[in-house]
Automatic annotation (TrEMBL):
Source species taxonomy: Bacteria, Bacillati, Actinomycetota, Actinomycetes, Kitasatosporales
Protein name (Swiss-Prot/TrEMBL): DUF2029 domain-containing protein
The organism's place on the tree of life at top rank: Bacteria
Transmembrane regions listed in the UniProt entry: 20-47, 59-92, 104-125, 132-152, 195-214, 221-237, 243-258, 265-286, 298-322
Similarity section: Belongs to the glycosyltransferase 87 family.
Membrane topology category: Multi-pass membrane protein
Length: 371
């Protein structure tokens, strides 16, 4: 595989591993990747409102085992990718205790691989200026460190190579689960057409609008998830292992469905888990990288674009569900810790001296006072 990331990423991760035999390097890399996955599960359970220590440990172990079955995780481990570490860095900025340090994880992640930059846009549109400044400062710091350690390579990368997405492979390959990949296969186009950029721009604006709307209803974590899905959709290349960003959403929905005994949400979550676990197109006889991906039949094109189609459905139908279960928050919260705001009138204060209203609508009988 060609090396695609900023020079700092090579020096931080891959140069040290190069001193080990290949087998030992793979063992170290996948072990640390699984530790990062366990940390992602642990953080997500905390965001979902799991507070009991023993239950959280048991659920983290169970979630770690089950999450390794997901296709993005399997490919992450097989191909030795860094996305699990990026997800962990970004997710740390959406927990309750991030405080004044919020945004630094996003900035570092973007400095290692530019795709997390979309989360800075989410911080900006939700007016978290301090976190956005932290993210930009951390990102610029990683770029500066890269120039100090490898000035020539950094100048080559940030001077224009970063924009050459074709280095990653053919945009039309079936493992590319972005909207661009789906468009390339359906329209038999190997190069970006100008109107593709318009479509991607509309999806980006809509997805970030959904994220901001979820935040205003007190659902910051769902705003984070909408931002992650939007970034995966509009990126020129979103290989299957890039979709590890859906793992926190799957865990959160599972906890929510269990607490609310919501069978419909549990069923939808099970379908989502199946979509992100099974390589459906390969089961149906479609090659992973067919020699002529643009020649697939219409139904094969749908099967070969399961991830982006699922992401679009989440952005289109998710707001309807959020509207039903999350009321607008007077002061948007920075996280979701279990139960959303309750519907219905505000309950009376416990220290209310007289629970009987002072005024009674005309024609209505006055309520009786308690004995």
């Amino acid at each position: 595989m060609p090396y695609l990331y900023p020079p700092l990423t090579a020096m931080a991760f891959f140069v040290p591993l190069s001193y080990l035999p290949a087998g030992a390097a793979a063992l170290v890399w996948n072990t640390v990747s699984l530790v990062a996955l366990g940390a992602v599960v642990w953080l997500t359970l905390g965001i979902a409102g799991i507070r009991d220590g023993k239950a959280k440990v048991a659920l983290t172990l169970a979630g770690l085992i089950l999450a390794t079955c997901l296709l993005p995780v399997r490919v992450q481990l097989i191909a030795g990718q860094i996305n699990m570490f990026l997800l962990l860095l970004v997710l740390m900025d959406f927990r309750r205790s991030a405080g004044k340090w919020r945004g630094i994880g996003i900035g570092i992640a973007a400095g290692l691989k530019i795709t997390p930059l979309i989360f800075i846009a989410y911080l900006v549109i939700t007016r978290r200026w301090g976190a956005a400044r932290n993210a930009v400062a951390a990102f610029m710091a990683t770029v500066a460190v890269g120039f100090l350690l490898a000035p020539a390579d950094s100048a080559t990368y940030w001077g224009g190579l970063v924009f050459h997405s074709s280095r990653a492979g053919g945009v039309f390959d079936t493992p590319n689960q972005s909207l661009s990949g789906a468009l390339a296969r359906v329209l038999s186009g190997e190069q970006f057409a100008n109107w593709w950029l318009v479509v991607l721009g509309v999806v980006a604006v809509y997805g970030l609008a959904v994220a901001a709307w979820a935040f205003r209803r007190g659902a910051d974590f769902l705003g984070f998830s909408a931002t992650a899905v939007t970034g995966l959709l509009v990126s020129p290349i979103s290989w299957e292992h890039h979709w590890v960003y859906v793992i926190p959403l799957l865990i959160w929905l599972t906890v929510w469905a269990h607490r609310r005994r919501a069978r419909a949400v549990a069923a939808v979550t099970a379908v989502l888990v199946a979509v992100f676990t099974v390589r459906v197109f390969m089961l149906l006889g479609i090659e992973e990288s067919p020699p002529a991906p643009m020649a697939l039949a219409a139904w094969e094109q749908v099967i070969a674009a399961m991830f982006p189609l699922t992401g679009l459905l989440l952005l289109l139908l998710g707001p309807l569900w959020v509207r039903r279960h999350f009321e607008p928050a007077s002061a948007p919260r920075d996280f979701i810790a279990g139960d959303p705001p309750q519907h219905g009138p505000t309950p009376p204060r416990e220290d209310a001296a007289d629970p009987v209203p002072d005024r009674v609508p005309a024609g209505a009988a006055p309520p009786s006072r308690p004995a």
